[in-house]
Model the fold of this input.
Amino acid sequence: MGVLAVLLIIGVPIAFSIGIAAMLTVFIDFPIDKATVLISQKMANGLDSFGLLALPFFIVAGNLMNRGGLATRLINFAMLLGGRLPGSLAHVNVMANMLFGSLSGSAAASAAAVGGIMRPLQEKHNYPKDFSTAVNVASCPSGLLIPPSNILILFGLVSSTSVQYLFIAGYIPGIMMGLSIMLGIFLFGRHYNIPRERIVSHAKVSKVILDALPSLSLVLIIMGGILGGVFTATEASAIAVVYALFLGLVYRELKFKDMYPILIESVITTSIVLLMVATSSAMSWSMANADIPTFISNFVLEASTNPLTIILLMNVILLVVGTFMDMTPAVLIFTPIFLPIATQLGIDPVHFGIILVFNLCIGICTPPVGTALFVGCSVSGIKLGSVIPKMLPLFLLMIATLALVTLFPSLSLWLPGLAGYKY
Done:
């Protein structure tokens, strides 16, 4: 952990930092030649999973949606839902992020696509740029809990937990995260000079719904197929690619010449993610070989006998980790450490997966490594220093929502229970 921290501080890429830390840990117990072979084998074994195919497919699907005109249609649909609320454009921003983020599976893509379209509208109606940016950044991770979600797939693979039930479990907490931001707009919008006017779209209601319906149907197709046993989550990811491509061509916003840059971007993103998966698999093995998870588990359990105190401690650690580590390596590193503690305390693995992802969703909005924060600020052209103070009350509401999800497992497990999950 010390080596990993030093490498991250001096700017070594995360995947290489994890791999080097894992190799140096193995050097303690094995000669260099055997250690390098072991690390190579564990990296290859970490990628030898059929379920991992879902990641590149959903990444391609997300990029197709980002270029295929889905964001505009979902924003129009969100305008139909939230346009009559005071401070309507801020509420529309939140709803659009929940809708588009759940389809694209990327908080950064959602912040860029939705923020880019909403910015001119908000400027036209004199919305304060700093608070509008804060709302966009804080709400964009909510879609990562609402399926289909790449990060929930990753947790399912690492923890051997059902991706199907993780998907279903994410609905209520994801919606609650979005609603907490909307509550923040009601509570603090007047203080930050959010216009109270209601903005009603002049487009025909039927046209807006018909335009958005094909995009919204993707969630129904994927979840309906998975729950109905028609296809697995991995097969659903391939169907999502075909469907997103079809919609982009039908909307005439996606051309065949766009496919090359989309695929190149998807290959680069997939390579980064899978390299982190490979090196994190090697690190997980090296930690297990050194009995680090057992040591941490014993230390935490001996520090307190109160389950509430222990889960609170894990939440604090994950919130701190999320501020300087991306979601993928954080899930890969901390799931093997914290999941055994959680199960020993009687916390259901599906519920713990939602808690972990919720924590990390908050983390990607915070400096120093908050990717969603940097994307949101670059789209709006606002400096980081002026956005962060406006985000603090929204952070507090998100943390309060996280506390509710942690303390009341039924918020995560009620829907999976209806679908047949035994917990």
About this structure: The radius of gyration is 21 Å. The longest helix spans residues 259-289. Residues 294 and 337 are 8 Å apart (CA to CA). The mean pLDDT is 82.
